[in-house]
Amino acid sequence: MIDKDRPILETRELSKRFSIGTRFSSQGKRTVHAVDNVSLTVRRGETVGLVGESGCGKSTLARCLVRLYDITDGKLLFEGDDITGRSLAELRPFRRRLQMVFQDPSASLNPRRRVGDLVAEPLRIHTKLSSSEITRRVAELFDLVGLLPDHVMRYPHEFSGGQRQRVGIARAIALNPDLVVLDEPVSALDVSVQAQIVNLLADLQEKLKLTYIFIAHDLSVVRQVSTRIAVMYLGSIVEEGPAEEVFETPAHPYSQALISAVPVVETTANGVRKRIILTGDVPSPLKPPSGCRFHPRCPIAVDRCRVERPELTEHRPGRKVACHFPTLSSL
Amino acid sequence: MMLSVRDLRVSFRTHEGLVRAIDGVSFELEEGEILGVVGESGSGKTVSLLAVMGLITDPNAVIEGSIRYKGRELVGLPARELRRLRGNEIAMIFQDPMTALTPVYTIGWQISEQIRAHKRVSKSQALARVEELLAEVNFPNPREAMSRFPHQLSGGMRQRAVIAMALSCNPALLVADEPTTALDVTVQAGILDLVRKLRATHNSAVVFITHDMGVVSELADRVMVMYAGRVVERGSRAELFSAPQHPYTRALLGSIPPLTGEKPHRLPAIPGSPPSLLRLPEGCAFGPRCPVNYEPCRTGKPDLGHGTHAAACFRVQA
To answer: Measured between beta carbons, which residues in chain B are less than 8 angstroms from residue A207?
Structure first.
């Protein structure tokens, strides 16, 4: 029985910092705060969408979640087990249940190996299946992601972008994982192909009872696939809530600006929506601003925001905002 | 008529045979007009505009047809003549600002070089103009930005520097090839505003290439949809978005997930993927992916026909 409310993955005040400029001397050593104090709970069967501008730390967070990066601070729990500091060997049993799909399928597939081999590899490493069982499983997986059986003998370059991403997805689900982290899985694809992959991911989620963490910069795609959304800014979550609600009535000024900036097709003759244009750029995570990290660009910032950093507070169940002055009507 | 392209064909000789990247593209552009060109990768949207700019220098390229800029034929024009137009009267903005700027010179140097290549002005006059331009594209501190190198600027700033460079000689025609694709939506919104402002202040004509229907619907006066080297539909923004005719346009618009309202359980996806230009299907190139099953589409290639709102589809024309 699947317990809907039991978290499958949880981060507690997770931080990831990178040191730069340390190779030849300790002088000028600086720290990039890529992910800063993120506490996120992912429940079974849901899709959590991570959105934010480039450099906000969403990909770094994703890589921390599957332990591709070591975690600097805080805790990462998988089904209640603390896997923050586990060694590679200790991680192995978790790895098969925690998979990842990358943005660029041509960069994440070895060009010199047949795609059937690529999909079989996790099975060879993690299971004791015989080679004929592996062949059968690979055929099953190809069918599941909408590739033809004779495709197994092909090389990645013989496929279109959409088909390559299907191979990447087949590889990720080969071991029947519980959780799949999808980092921009449709961004590199042609517009007419994106919807196919979005639908495929939804079908697989239903069939295989998968939990997704979905990262994309295309906000309408994120809204389509996600049950919950976390908006990130400069390494921290600034707003979290049910997908449709956050899009309809964002409470944080940053989420409002971000969502209003998405160009949408207007069928009326001259309807440019009212939009909030943010001034300036995302500050460098080397030198994050004091107080609320969004204050230099925030249209409603006051003195308090320059000094005091707002906590991510739950205003009502499931709806969290990190702002001193959230739009209350949204909450 | 500022720009008039007639039956443009661009082919490339390759090892695997002749690739027809552009197959009979025609369009016109008036002063102060923004034309949006939408298409997926390989649809020919970039190649057709590179042809207009005279930037296809591949010896294996064959360019046919006519490109008239202010009544003057550009196809076959000597490179020297073209260079005089390019950067001066016709300017281009590319997708990736990092590769459009040279990493070893400052922003100020690069833009002033462009000005001095086309106008007889002194170095200090050129630099003064650069400062003006950077202020115009909303650099908070133009004087300081002039001494920066490209790597010291953010992506949005870099693209604005490229736009400043494109504007430096007050071009009558600006060609922008996916100028916001590499940028975040928040930054994109600012750049789109800038393009609108440019049209208002300089009355420049703009050709805006993108794959994003949303961007086109917010910016363009007229829209041209391309598929596999041909224009499949053209019309005014209102016509194209409120009453799309071509099955490809309709399917493309339908497959975009909505940002508000009810979420569809499944997205209406287009099957298959865009065809390789080396192996175009018989008949209509969209045929194999088209939801409409119509006999003539299997053998003949539909033409766009006339009229302001037109679709290259036998079914629509029938």
So the answer is: none
Q: Measure the CA–CA gap between A166 and A185, rounded to whole angstroms.
A: 10
Please tell me which of the candidates A247, A258, A263 has its beta carbon nearest to residue B214.
Answer: A263
Q: What is the pLDDT of residue A267?
A: 58
Are A278 and A253 in contact by the 8 Å Cβ rule? The answer is no
Dist CA A331 CA B52 (whole Å): 53
Residue appearing with tokens 């690529």: A118
pLDDT value, residue A272: 55
Burial class for A26, CB neighbours closer than 10 Å (0-12, 13-18, 19+):
exposed
Helices (H), B182-296: 185-202, 213-219, 237-242, 247-254
Of B257, B271, B289, the CB nearest to A220: B257
Indicate left, alpha or beta for B289 from its phi (over 0: left) and psi (-120 to 50: alpha): alpha
Which amino acid makes up residue A329? S
Q: Do residues A142 and A227 make contact, with C-beta atoms less than 8 angstroms apart? A: no
- Note whether A238 contacts B: Cβ–Cβ < 8 A: no
Per-residue pLDDT for A239 more than 90? Answer: yes
Cα atoms found within 13 Å of the Cα of residue A229, Cβ hemisphere only? 29
Query: Other CB atoms closer than 10 Å to residue A125's CB: what's the count?
Result: 11
Q: How many CA atoms lie within 13 A of B11 on its CB side?
A: 15
Q: Which of B241, B267, B270 sits opposite A267 (nearest CB)?
A: B241
* pLDDT-based confidence at residue B109 (cuts at 50, 70, 90): very high
Are β-strands B222-227 and A30-43 bridged in parallel, bridged antiparallel, or unpaired? unpaired
Count the alpha carbons within 13 Å of B26 in the hemisphere toward its beta carbon.
13
User: Which of B154, B175, B5, B162 is CA-nearest to residue B91?
Assistant: B175
Nearest CA distance, A17 vs chain B (angstrom): 21
Rounded to a whole number, what is the largest CA-CA distance in chain A? 68
How many beta carbons lie within 10 A of that of residue A190, not counting itself?
A: 20
Mean pLDDT confidence for B209-222: 92
Indicate the length of chain B as a whole number: 318
Q: Tokens 């949006």 correspond to what residue?
A: B36
Q: Label residue B68 exposed, middle or buried (CB < 10 Å: 0-12, 13-18, 19+).
A: middle
Q: Is the dihedral of CA B224, B227, B233, B237 positive or negative?
A: negative
Question: Ramachandran region of residue B156, left (φ > 0), alpha (ψ -120 to 50) or beta?
Answer: alpha
Please report the ipTM that was assigned to this predicted complex. 0.84
User: Which tokens belong to B261?
Assistant: 């309202």
Q: Tell me which residue of B103, B70, B71, B73 sits closest to B89, measured CA to CA.
A: B70
Judged by CB atoms closer than 8 Å, whether chains meet at B257 and A162 is answered as: no
Name A30's bridge partners.
Answer: A20
User: CA–CA separation, A69 vs B18, rounded Å?
Assistant: 47
Please name the residue of chain A whose CA is at the shortest distance from the CA of residue B256: A195
With CB atoms and an 8 Å threshold, state whether A195 touches B270.
Answer: yes
∠ Cα A138 A144 A147 (to 5°)? 75
Which amino acid is present at A273? R
Residue owning tokens 């004779």: A150
Residues of chain B with Cβ-Cβ distance to A160 below 8 Å are: 273-274
| Residue B274 near residue B41, CB atoms below 8 Å | yes
Parallel/antiparallel/unpaired status of strands A47-51 and A73-78? unpaired
Give dist(CA B218, CA A5) in Å, integer.
42
Residue A235 has pLDDT above 80, yes or no: yes
Cβ contact A192–B192 (<8 Å): no
Q: How far is CA B17 from the centre of its chain?
A: 27
Residues 6 or more apart whose Cβ sits within 8 Å of residue A115:
A109, A151, A152, A154, A155, A156, A159, A167
Q: Which contacts of B139-145 are long-range, i.e. CB under 8 A and separated by 24 or more positions?
A: B139/B164, B140/A280, B145/B107, B145/B108
